[in-house]
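<goal> How does this chain fold?
<body> The protein record starts here
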Amino acid sequence: MSKETAVYTHGHHESVLRSHTWRTAANSAAHLLGSLKPHMKVLDIGCGPGTITADLAELVPDGHVTGVDHAPGILDRARATADDRGLDNVTFAVADVHALEYADDTFCVVHAHQVLQHVGDPVQALREMYRVTRPGGLVAVRDSDYAAMTWYPPVPGMDDWLDLYRRVARANGGEPDAGRRLKSWALEAGLTDITASSSTWCYSTAEERAWWSGLWADRTVESAYAERATESGHATSGELEAVAAAWREWGRRDDAWFSVLHGEILCRKPA
C-alpha cells in the first residue's frame, strides 16, 4: 500500500487551530448526521484537535469513535478535548489514511473532513477508508474547494492570496480544489453507491469577518504555510505581508462577505 507523500500545508500554528477548533459536527458534518445511530463504531480520519470527533462520540453514546491523525503532536489536544467533555467512548491514535492498520470491515462509519485535499493519493485513501468500513456502512467525506471560494468586495491582494495558496498546496503534493473531485475520486477508487452534495460556510457579520480575516492574515505570515511559501520560492516575506494586509483590509469592510464551498460524499458499502 502507498504511504503518505504530501506535506500538510497548514501545520498546527495557533492561527490554524483557531479555525479547526471552531469546527463542529453540526457545521462541518451535517451531511452525515442523519445516518448516525447510537450504537455505531466510527473512525474519524484527520481528527486534528478533536472537536468534530468529540461531537461524533456524543452522537453515538452506545458506540465508539476512534480519532486518528498523521501528526502525533495534535493528538494530545484531541485527548484533552474529549477529557474536558467527559467522554469515555473515544480513543485516539496515529495513522496514515493510505495504509490504515485496521482489519477489513471494522467500522460502521469512516469519516474524513478536510483531509483528502492534503493527501498524496486521495484515491488510495478512499480505498482504505472503504476497506475498513463494514458492509452496509458509510464512508463520509467533506472537502473545501479553493477555486470555488468567493468573496466581496474585491480587495486588491485577495486574488494573490488564492493564487499563492493553490500553488503552495499543490507543490506540497495536495489538491486544494478537492471538493469538486470527491465523486470522481470515489468512482476511481471503486465505490459505487455514492450520494454527492455540497454545503457552505459563510462569514459576514462583524465578528465573523474579524475572526476569518484575522486567522488568515496570521496564517499567511506566521504558520508552516508561510514557511513553505517562502522556502519553496513561491513568495517573499514582503509578498506575504501584502497578502496579510489585504486580508485585514477585507475584514474591516462593513460590506465584506466570504463563502467557502464544500463538496461532500456519502458512500454506502453493499451489505
User: Anything to note?
Assistant: The chain has eleven helices and eight strands. The beta strands are 41-45, 64-69, 90-94, 107-113, 133-144, 150-152, 193-203, 257-268.
